[in-house]
Amino acid sequence: MDVIGADIDVCFSTPKDFKKIIILLDEITETINHKKGWSKYKVSTTLARQKDVYKKILLGENKIFVAKYKEEIVGLINMQIVYNLRHGWRRAHLEEVVVHSKYRGLGIGTKLINAVKNHCLSNKIKVIKLMCGNQLTDALAFYKKTALFLKIRGYDLSLNNIWAGTIYRGVRPKAERWIFLAVLSSQLK
Fold this sequence. Notes:
Layout: E1 8-12, H1 18-36, H2 47-59, E2 63-69, E3 72-84, E4 89-99, H3 108-122, E5 127-133, H4 137-145, E6 149-155, E7 176-183
Parallel strand pairs: 4-5
Antiparallel strand pairs: 1-2, 2-3, 3-4, 5-7, 6-7
């Protein structure tokens, strides 16, 4: 497949991108299941609920960055803004970072991360943070390569007992997470 980086357009998602984004997220769920050896992990929601959440993301200062090759969405980053009271600044939390499996290694992830960094710098967002399961070794290597640095190990607190059957079908194994940060130093003044 000859995909040249110049042919990839990174932009903010629009309402018309919803179905293509869901297809891409389904593909990454399958990848995670394969890498982690999970067979029962399913995202337990409805398309209507996903669409409602998607609309809410598009309304505020949260952003979904999409990488498009021709009209196909080949990558995305879901960036959520978190306010840090102690420091008095905003932080970007990258909730989903996805590049379609057949387009990995072509610079698309780097273009997406750079678009997020540029957006954060121009909007005085001081820190970018993301978490990654330790079984996703390709993703870990990518994050280390793109100037995100490993800060600490973190853990999930699962609320399955409270929301049984709502969030996950079956039991989600406890997974250690890696937390990466990019401190945008020009914004710390």
